[in-house]
Write a structure and sequence with these properties.
Elements: E1 6-11, E2 14-19, H1 30-45, E3 51-56, E4 62-63, H2 75-79, H3 84-91, E5 97-101, E6 104-106, H4 108-114, E7 118-122, E8 126-128, H5 142-150, H6 152-161, E9 164-166, H7 167-172, E10 178-180, H8 184-196, H9 200-214, H10 218-231, H11 236-246
Parallel strand pairs: 2-3, 3-5, 4-6, 5-7, 6-8, 7-10
Antiparallel strand pairs: 1-2, 8-9
Helix pairs in contact: 1-3, 4-5, 5-6, 9-10
Length: about 260
Amino acid sequence: MKYRFIGFIIDEGIAQIKINRAEVLNALNIETGDEIIDVCNNLKKESSARAMIITGSGANFAAGADILPMMNASPQEARKLTFNRAFNSIESLELPVIAAISGYALGGGLELALACDFRICSVDAKMGLPEIKLGIFPGAGGTQRLPKIIGAGRAKEMIFTGAIIGAERALEIGLVNGISEGSVFDEALKMANIFCSLSPLALGAAKKAVNFGLGNDLQSGIKFEEELWAGCFSTEDQREGMKAFSEKRKPVFTGK
């Protein structure tokens, strides 16, 4: 598939998606979501990627979604305008996904970042879910993912007021993992390179365990974790990791 609204490359084990709609502050449209789904489907089939970074072109991450197609939509039509399939595809990837946020990450743009495992922002970043001011509310996972990340009270405050917050506040409430004083992409790249040095099988299993636990009771989560943990002992990466530890050297993980 040839991509029109995103850029995509894999460089030294790091997949990179860049939203390429700078002329509209990288606002998302349905075609952008379809292209993201295609990338994720291909990564799930077979890929050399061990981590992924999502960013926006120009000065912004993604300033919401295109409003015009929504203005006269019926409820049935509106269901087709959510980005749930795209964002669920990102969340279900077994590799770590980092959102590198600069400028605006609003509405669907912030919901895109919420579907990632980590969020790093620049000092000038502005984040929020302003949909309530349009007579709607976040409909692409915002009401579900945000409370799990920052807690119900703070999430309700953001969702109910539509407030836009800056980088320092985002860090304070746990919405982002860090603030970059320089290039936010370079900061994300440092994190991605750490993941590239680790076992992709162990990372994938750990991500599955955490995500499962967020939606299930504690005992179910512990049982699921135990199964995935025990499964690591059928891998060459587990043997290499422990052998390298005993030999006091760096492990070389192959994903087998």
